[in-house]
């Protein structure tokens, strides 16, 4: 587990250090509703290029009133999600936390929003006081952590009583039950859980050509073979795992009891 964590950290740090393009704002697989009759999420024109990634955040935060709250995103990456939350949902403050110094530097340079800041820190030992936030967001990041239980204990600690934790990530089909237990291990109470594998796979298929083009354009050639699976391109392990059902994508909402 420790080796896996170190490998993920090295990969993300390298990407942030080597690919400094401000237009690369999101690193998640995206979310595309399967019902074409559903009204589309209203977005600012500047966010349209990242619609599928933004929709994953909108789904994860569905039903949560963020207006006027203090929001923490753990694993904020290149800062696009935290910036969208700050600009679109009306929180009082939005804090993005990431272990990568290079990613935090990029986010501070390129992302803007009312009350938005970015902090370097560890998801399993967050640099915040107890009961500092009303909402904690974690999107497609926890699979990199050495201990999900330690992370969720930290979420419980930094949430205010009555606060909300929203989460979305991929897991092996055989790990779904264990993941449910991990998320609830610190005393957070589950109020919603969904399997959104079909919507994530739909997003990957819709976006495959664009993603493949960006890999060719943005990623140094020696890293193409390594990065294609990371990007979820067709024919790679994660994409095929979603299609075969051996890999699942879940979302959940839990609350800290008041």
Summarize the structure.
The chain contains 9 helices and 7 strands. By secondary structure, the protein is an alpha/beta fold.
Could you walk me through the main structural features you see in this protein, from its secondary elements to its overall organization?
The chain has a seven-stranded mixed β-sheet with strand order 3-2-1-4-5-7-6. It is built from nine helices and seven strands, in the order H-H-E-H-E-H-E-E-H-E-H-E-H-H-H-E. The chain is α/β, with parallel strands linked by helices and 258 residues long. It has helices spanning 2-18, 51-60, 80-88, 101-110, 148-158, 176-183, 197-218, 224-230, 237-244; strands at residues 70-74, 93-98, 116-120, 133-139, 159-172, 189-195, 247-255. The two termini are 34 Å apart.
Topology:
Elements: H1 2-18, H2 51-60, E1 70-74, H3 80-88, E2 93-98, H4 101-110, E3 116-120, E4 133-139, H5 148-158, E5 159-172, H6 176-183, E6 189-195, H7 197-218, H8 224-230, H9 237-244, E7 247-255
Parallel strand pairs: 1-2, 1-4, 2-3, 4-5
Antiparallel strand pairs: 5-7, 6-7
Number of strands: 7
- Element order, helices and strands? HHEHEHEEHEHEHHHE
Estimated structural class? alpha/beta
Major sheet description: 7 strands, mixed
* Strand order across the largest sheet: 3-2-1-4-5-7-6
Please state the CA-atom Rg, rounded to the nearest Å. 17 Å
Helical coverage, percent range: 25-40%
Strand content: 15-25%
The rough form would be described as: globular
Mean pLDDT, nearest integer?
92
Euclidean distance between termini CA atoms? 34 Å
Q: Pick out the low-confidence regions.
A: none
- How many distinct helices? 9
């Amino acid at each position: 587990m420790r080796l896996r964590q170190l490998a993920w950290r090295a990969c993300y740090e390298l990407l942030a250090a080597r690919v400094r393009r401000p237009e690369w704002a999101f690193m998640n697989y995206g979310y595309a509703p399967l019902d074409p009759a559903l009204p589309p999420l209203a977005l600012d024109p500047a966010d349209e290029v990242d619609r599928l990634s933004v929709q994953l955040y909108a789904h994860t935060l569905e039903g949560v009133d963020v207006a006027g709250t203090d929001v923490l995103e753990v694993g904020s990456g290149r800062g696009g999600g935290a910036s969208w939350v700050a600009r679109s949902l009306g929180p009082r403050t939005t804090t993005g936390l990431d272990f990568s110094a290079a990613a935090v530097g990029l986010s501070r340079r390129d992302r803007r929003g009312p009350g938005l800041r970015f902090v370097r820190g560890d998801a399993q030992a967050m640099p915040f006081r107890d009961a500092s936030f009303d909402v904690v967001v974690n999107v497609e990041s926890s699979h990199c952590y050495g201990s999900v239980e330690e992370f969720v204990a930290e979420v419980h600690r930094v949430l205010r009583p009555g606060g909300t934790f929203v989460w979305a990530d991929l897991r092996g089909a055989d790990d779904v039950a264990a993941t449910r237990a991990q998320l609830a291990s610190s005393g957070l109470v589950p109020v919603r859980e969904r399997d959104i594998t079909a919507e994530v796979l739909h997003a990957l298929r819709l976006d495959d050509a664009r993603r493949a083009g960006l890999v060719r354009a943005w990623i140094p050639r020696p890293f193409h073979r390594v990065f294609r699976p990371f990007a979820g391109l067709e024919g790679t392990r994660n994409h095929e795992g979603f299609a075969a059902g051996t890999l699942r994508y879940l979302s959940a909402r839990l609350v800290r009891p008041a």
